[in-house]
Amino acid sequence: MKIGIVCYPTYGGSGVVATELGKALGENGHQVHFITYSQPTRLDFFNPNVFYHEVTFENYPLFKYPPYEMALASKIVDTAIHEDLDILHVHYAIPHASSAFMARNILQERAGKHLPFITTLHGTDITLVGRDKTYEPVVSFSINASNGVTAVSQNLKERTLQHFQVKREIRVIPNFVDFRRFSKRPKEHFKKAICPNNERLIIHTSNFRKVKRVEDVLHVFKLINEKTPAKLLLVGDGPERPRMENLARELGITEDIRFLGKIDEVEEVLWVADLFLMPSEQESFGLAALEAMACEVPVVSTNAGGIPELNVHGVTGCVTEVGDIEGMANHALLVLDEKNLDKFKANALEHAKKFDRSKIVPMYEEFYEEVLRNGKV
Ligand code: GMT
Predict the structure, then answer these.
(1) Ligand 1 test: best mutation among 283, 303, 363, most atoms within 8 Å of CB?
(2) Is residue 72 assigned to a domain?
(3) Looking at ligand 1, which atom is closest to the CA of residue 288?
(4) Residue 183, in any domain of the structure
(5) What's the confidence (pLDDT) of residue 376?
(6) In which band, very low, low, confident or very high, does the pLDDT at 58 lie, cut at 50, 70 and 90?
(7) Which domain holds residue 92?
C-alpha cells in the first residue's frame, strides 16, 4: 500500500506513535509518506520505503495566523497525486482531520481520485482541546467524515462517544512499543553514577504540561525519599519546567533530583530505573509508561483516562486517584520494597509484551485493508 501519514512532528506521544507506525509499515514493505511541517523527531533513520514531505507555507503581512490547515491540505493533494497514495492516516484530529477532508474533496473534483482517510484520536484532541467550543463543530464533523476512526484506548473511545455526536464506529487500537529498542540492557555503571549509595531510582518523563501534574512527582518523591533513599530523574521539557525547578528548591530536594531536559535515547535512562511515576490528570493511554514497562520498570500512576488499561493495579504497579499524593507515595514504597520490586518488574515486562509492535501494527494494516475494501463514502 502507499500510505500518507500526517502527524505533529514534535515530542508529543501522537507524533511518536505515528512515526513508529510509519517505520514499521515501511519495514513491512509498504510505501510510507510523512506529510508534516518539520521532520518528526523519531524519523531519524533511513528506510527506502519511507519518505518525508514538508508542509511549507508563506507568511503574508495580512495574516495574523498563517492558515496551516490550508497549506497542509494542499500538500496532501500534491503528495497524493504525485505519489499516487492509496490511503491517508491522520494522527490527532485537530486540524489534521479537517485538512484531510478538504484534500479528499479537492482530489475527487480535480483528479477524480478517491483518497480515503483514517483519523486516529490520541487524547487531548478529544479530552481537552477538541471539546472546547472553539473547535467542537469541526472536530465532530471531521470525525464523522473520516472513512475510518481509531482511538488509542477503550476509555478514549467512550469519552469520544460521550462528548461528540459520532456516527462512525470507532476501532480501539492501543499504543505499541518496539522491544528491539526498549528491551532492558545492563548499564550498571550508569546506575552507580546516579545512585552511588544504591538508592532507588525513580523516573518521570513528560512534556511538562499542566495536565501531567509534574508538581505531584516532586511531592511524591519527597515523601518516598523520607522513608527510602532515592534519586529522581525528570526527562522532558515544556511550559511547567521553570515552575517545577522552583518548587524543587522550595521542597529542599534539589540534591536528589535532576532535570535532564529532552533526551532522544530515553531508553538508556529507563534501563536503570526502579519506578516510573505518572500522576497525570488526563492520559488517554500513557505511551511513556508503556515504554518504561518494556524496560522492566513498574509504574505508579493515577487512574486517569485509559491508564488502568495499561497499568494493572497490584500487578504492574499501582493506581491511585488523581492528586492523591500520599496514596501515590505509599504505593511507590510498596512497589520499591525489596520483597516486591523484582516481581513488579517482571510483571511490568510481561504485560508490556501484550503491546508489542508486532501484535499492534497488523491491526492498523487490517483496518487500512477494510477501509479500502469498503470503497467510497
Ligand atoms: O500529552 C501528551 O503526552 C501528548 C499527546 C499527543 O497527542 O501527542 O499524547 C496523547 O497521545 C499519546 C499517544 O497515543 C498517548 O499515549 C497519551 O496518553 C496522550 N496524552 C493525553 O491523553 C494527555
Answers:
(1) 283
(2) yes
(3) 16
(4) no
(5) 52
(6) confident
(7) 2-176+356-374
Residue 5 grid coordinates: 501519514
CA distances from 35 to 56, 86, 102, 113, 332 (A): 10, 14, 15, 18, 42
Indicate whether 333 and 194 sit together in one domain. Answer: yes
- Max avg pLDDT among 38-52, 151-165, 318-332: 318-332
Cell 538508592 appears where? 199
Identify which of 203, 190, 197 has the alpha carbon closest to the alpha carbon of residue 275.
203
Beta strands in 147-199 (DSSP E): 148-151, 170-172
User: Which range in 34-43, 262-271, 287-296 is most confidently predicted, on average pLDDT?
Assistant: 287-296
pLDDT of residue 130: 66
Q: What is the C-alpha separation between 87 and 110, in angstroms, rounded?
A: 17
Cell of 284: 488517554
- Measured CA to CA, the distance from residue 357 to residue 192 in angstroms comes to 32
Quote the pLDDT of residue 334: 98
Grid cell of 241 as nine digits: 519546567
Residue 350 identity: E
133: pLDDT confidence band, cut at 50, 70 and 90? confident
For 45-59, 73-87, 239-253, 301-315, which range has the lowest pLDDT when averaged over its residues? 45-59
State whether 333 and 363 are in the same domain.
Answer: no
220, amino acid identity: V
Ligand 1 atom showing the smallest separation from residue 15 Cα: 8
CATH of the domain at 291: 3.40.50.2000
**Are 167 and 218 contained in the same domain?**
no
What is the structure's pLDDT at 377? 47
**CA–centroid distance, residue 290 to ligand 1 (Å):** 12
Same domain, 331 and 235: yes
Q: Is 350 contained in some domain?
A: yes
Residue type, 95: P
100/192 same-domain check: no
Residue 257 lies in a domain: yes
User: Is the pLDDT assigned to residue 333 strictly greater than 90?
Assistant: yes
